[in-house]
Amino acid sequence: MKKTITLTGLLLLAHTADAHAANLALITAPMNLINVAVLLIAIAGVVGSIQVLSLVRGGALSKSWQLFVVGFIALAIGQCIFVLNAVEVFAAPSFIAPALLAAAIGVIIYGVWQAKGVLE
User: Fold this and answer.
1) Other CB atoms closer than 10 Å to residue 101's CB: what's the count?
2) Residue 30, C-beta contacts closer than 8 angstroms, at least 6 positions apart
3) pTM
4) CB half-sphere exposure, 72, CA atoms < 13 A
């Protein structure tokens, strides 16, 4: 009990940011709707690639599907940062989301290259 009270007190003292309401009206802007759609597609890609990875476990194509999982996760995190910045919930530096998207594209292309090498 003492640990819980102490930890709660420390967390309350450590939290110094102001609370602001999210601007949810911005989510209906056309570019933000596209970002939300890409986020949903990326999440579906993560789920689908994990399912395929579980089917090919230990096979010749497992390395490429591992890369697809990592690429879709990076894409989902990048899009999540875009959406959270758009609705003003989370303020991340402007270079993080594009860097994650570029990394996702690179990893997915490398996974395609790996699969092409295995299938030749």
Assistant:
1) 19
2) none
3) 0.76
4) 19
Ramachandran region, residue 22 (left: φ > 0; alpha: ψ -120 to 50; beta: rest): beta
Residues of the chain with pLDDT under 50: none
Q: How far apart are CA 44 and CA 41, in angstroms?
A: 5
Question: Domain segments of the chain: what residues?
Answer: 22-119
Q: How far is the CA of 24 from the CAs of 7, 32, 72, 84, 87, in angstroms? A: 32, 11, 26, 10, 5
pLDDT digits (tens, 9 = 90+) for 17-51: 555 666 666 667 778 889 899 999 999 999 999 99
Return the DSSP state at 29: S
